[in-house]
Amino acid sequence: MSGNVGSKCRTCREPAIIDLARHNANFCAEHFLELCRRQVTKAIEKYEMFDRDDRILVAVSGGKDSLAVWDLLIELGYQADGLYVGLGIGEYSDVSGEYAQRFADERGLRLITISLRGEYGYDIPTASKATRRVPCSACGLSKRHLFDKAALDGGYTAVVTGHNLDDEAAVLLGNTMRWEIDYLARQLPVLPARNGFPKKVKPLVRLTERETAAWCIVRGIDYLVDECPMAAGNRHLGYKDTLNAMEAQSPGSKAAFYLNFIDRMAPLLADHATVERESVHACSECGAPTSGDVCAFCRLVATASAHEPVSVPMMLKGRR
Ligand code: SF4
Ligand code: ZN
Q1: How is residue 308 annotated by DSSP?
Q2: Contact 84, 97 (CB under 8 A)
Q3: Is the pTM of this model over 0.85?
Q4: Please, which of 114, 119, 130, 259 could form a disulfide with 307 given CB 3.0 to 4.6 Å?
Q5: How far apart are CA 206 and CA 256, in angstroms?
Q6: How far is the CA of 245 from the centre of ligand 1 (A)?
Q7: Positive or negative, the Cα torsion across 235, 239, 240, 241?
């Protein structure tokens, strides 16, 4: 995260610790943190994410983005608790849970934890095998359901995730490449509460992953650097590489691609976003909103919990 040797902070002219080509400037630690706070505040206010009366539930993984967003929200004076879901992805999950818990304990914050294996009788490697789908599919479904449920049960008014500019731009590129209009219509930094689903917000959409990592380093936040072992082959990683190559040629292009989509294109797709989810009712098993009789999560639990447990090394071997 170093600045150019001898470079000076744009704001105070003290030695810089980071160069941000897209802002065409270098920053010292203090003014880098200030820039991050400003970007997050701008996202919260511009997209009307929440205010200080809201009770926020942060989806915490133990990685840099979720810990950075939790830290930023607390620093900015918001009421935010954390939720960690133990996915049972071998050592990765054990260690990530420790990082999340340590962060909360050191700051006296409330972290709710849920164990998929302990409470629902399955884990992600097993769910993937049992459903014969990629791990991220069962994982995304499980996390969405559990975040929604915890938010509604706990009286939280918004669920926050740590998706950053790189994540959102990569998903946007993927959806654009295939002209996935329905997905594009919903790719917003705020999804309002409706039909029994809580509001979902992404306050880090104006910060890159390099910036969230730098935030953690400057703030002394210990986070799990390793990626989830199930992420290998995830096509979003390829889209990130593509966008990074373009960004290197033309600093600022990544932010322009995503933020201009939100400002200029998303409003044109608004009608599409409201059509879906019109005919939902309560799942006959768990009461969650669903378009079928039994929701996808309850069906996943039934299939995955009946399957004999699969370990992470077996899972990875099976994918080669
Ligand atoms: Fe879940 Fe996939 Fe993310 Fe791993 S990479 S935590 S399996 S969504
Ligand atoms: Zn259900």
Answers
A1: P
A2: yes
A3: yes
A4: 130
A5: 10
A6: 24
A7: positive
21-35, 50-64, 187-201, 208-222: which has the minimum mean pLDDT?
187-201
Backbone torsions φ then ψ of 301, nearest 5 degrees? -60, -45
Distance 134 CA to ligand 1 centre (A): 10
Binning pLDDT at 50, 70 and 90, where does residue 280 land?
confident
Give the largest Cα separation in the chain, rounded.
Answer: 65
Return the domain boundaries, the chain.
47-319
Helix spans in the chain (H): 29-46, 64-75, 90-107, 124-131, 135-154, 165-177, 181-186, 209-219, 235-249, 253-260, 270-275, 296-305, 312-319
Q: Which ligand is nearest to the CA of 319?
A: 1
140 lines ligand 1 (CB under 6 A): yes
Architecture field, domain 47-319: 3-Layer(aba) Sandwich (3.40)
Give, in order, the Cα–Cα distances in Å from 258 to each of 24, 190, 235, 240, 246.
19, 14, 18, 13, 13
The alpha carbon dihedral of 177, 181, 182, 188 has a sign of positive
Position in ligand 1 atom list of the atom nearest CA 124: 7
CA atoms within 13 A on the CB side of 176: 12
* Residues with a beta carbon under 5 angstroms from ion ligand 2: 283, 285-286, 288, 295, 298
Q: For 288-297, what is each residue's pLDDT tens digit?
A: 999 889 999 9
Burial class (CB in 10 A: 0-12, 13-18, 19+), 99: buried
Residues above pLDDT 70, as percent of the chain: 94
Using most ligand atoms within 8 A of CB, pick from 65, 139, 142 the residue to mutate for ligand 1. 139
The set of residues, in sequence order, having a beta carbon less than 8 Å from that of 195 and lying 6+ positions away, is 277, 280, 289
Ligand that lies nearest to the alpha carbon of residue 231, given by its number in the listed order: 1
d(CA 294, CA 312) in angstroms, rounded, equals 29
Tell whether ligand 1 has an atom less than 6 A from the beta carbon of residue 136: yes
